[in-house]
């Protein structure tokens, strides 16, 4: 549950205090969003955090950008899984954690609203990518690479494509709403992808 | 290239004229959107189509809803494929047509903007589902069912899940922008999904 601060390795004068302020702003934006189910205004975030608008704009271009970062910090534990788990199980649990997060908490509608806002706000889109999607993709890619090293996953696996195949159906159902985020979705998606991902276990009849 | 009108089987007094008006409105919204790269206003659509706002609101709740329907009609040919094609090839071509449409025409950014607007407009979301996504899903499901009948696709295929797996990565890349809509994407996605979809061709060693 340790939050990983990207600034923790660059001590500077005043850092502890500004770090406290940053976290107060992130917490305020996230709490307001989870309570209200929508992206809060800058004024509401400033008021809740006890800072000025200027302080917020020093670090972020919009309240949506604050929220994108705050949501990641808040739900960071949902992308941390033990390397002791078999790769397929670790990936299934990761997809299932996303399903549960998007279905059972306000994070689902917040992510949907942030994605919608990102369609006309390039900086927010980049923040969402950097703070929300890429860390989750990196965790999944880590497990796939672990599988390659351990021999259970094909050495020529297309990591970008497989990570898309694992997570895209979850976001697709969130955004379009054509089918529910079922309890079984994560396992079904992993079962569907796995035959193409697993290293061949039979005798090598057709090498290359 | 025939547009299929869902009303063509219910003749009523005045239908031909109102049909012409409907099509003029759909064409106006679609032309304006493709020229401008964004959802047009109701006033712009009314002006281009030579009708009143009231006439448009008689049939649609918003210009976005008009556009959702107009875009489907305009790009309807991208979901029509010959049943003479092998199932896997028909599905690959369908995904590839979507990749090309979303990448190489303004339809991509329009779909992204309509999806964004749908996050806070339930009627639009339903129109997008009904007019854009479901007809494409139905075509893909048709090919999968054809494959079951012909024996190339597993009889227990989860059609909803497989259709998600085929199309979700395309929309995922459109919405998040984390990876490009490559020329190879459609084939890669189909190759990834196919081992889990194909009916077993080996001797039945473990039935059921």
TrEMBL record, chains A, B:
Q: Where is the composition biased (Polar residues)?
A: 1-11
Q: Tell me which residues make up the HTH tetR-type domain.
A: 19-78
Keyword Signal carried by entry: no
Keyword Cell division (UniProt): no
Cited PROSITE patterns? HTH_TETR_2
What domain of life does the UniProt record list for this protein's source? Bacteria
Query: Which keywords appear in this protein's UniProt record, sorted alphabetically?
Result: DNA-binding, Transcription, Transcription regulation
| Pfam families xrefs | TetR_C_11, TetR_N
Record GO terms (molecular function): DNA-binding transcription factor activity; transcription cis-regulatory region binding
Q: Where is this region: Disordered?
A: 1-21
What is the name of this protein?
Putative transcriptional regulator, TetR family protein
List the taxonomic lineage: Bacteria, Bacillati, Actinomycetota, Actinomycetes, Micrococcales
